[in-house]
Design brief:
Blueprint lengths: L2 H23 L3 H30 L11 H25 L7 H30 L6 H28 L4
Helix pairs in contact: 1-2, 1-4, 1-5, 2-3, 2-4, 2-5, 3-4
């Protein structure tokens, strides 16, 4: 499987999980808090794996002569913002409902969802085209084998998480 196909599959998995979190946000507070807790505990480790995969893929410079490094710099900035938000959510999940009101957890989750959706769109529109030719050669085969294993692990984790949070309450 080609690297860009694997990245497309990975983004589709994340979109499913983000859609599930948005559905969970619509429930009453008690149910939403429980499901968000489970969903975020699936998303956050998966997000770490995704960032590792991105680092493997995008650390290789693209062939595009017009690349000025701006998309990579933008991705790095978004990684920092998402990592900071991730840490804030992890901290919020450790707190009691009195220490972290549900509205705070809800707003952090919405912000994370929005940031991740925007980041995936930017990667797909601006970064992937720069790498398309570079990833179609031998680098693609080497990375594909390595990434395919990582994406399969990620897929199992996300599927397990979605199944857990989709159970009737």
């Amino acid at each position: 499987m080609r690297v860009l196909d694997l990245l497309t599959k990975e983004h589709a998995l994340f979109r499913r999980l983000l859609d599930r979190l948005e559905i969970d946000l619509a429930h009453d507070e008690e149910r939403a808090r429980t499901e968000l807790d489970d969903g975020l505990k699936t998303l956050l480790p998966a997000l770490d794996r995704h960032l590792d995969i991105d680092d493997l893929v995008f650390k290789h410079p693209p062939d595009a002569p017009y690349d000025d490094g701006e998309p990579l710099a933008e991705i790095e900035e978004e990684h920092r913002a998402i990592s900071s938000l991730r840490e804030e959510i992890l901290y919020a999940l450790e707190l009691s409902s009195e220490e972290c009101p549900f509205e705070r957890l809800r707003s952090l989750t919405v912000l994370l969802i929005d940031n991740l959706e925007e980041r995936m769109k930017m990667e797909e529109a601006r970064l992937w085209p720069l790498y398309k030719n570079a990833l179609s050669r031998s680098l693609d085969r080497t990375l594909s084998n390595h990434l395919e294993k990582r994406v399969k692990v990620l897929e199992k984790e996300i599927e397990r998480g979605i199944a857990a949070i989709s159970m009737p309450f």
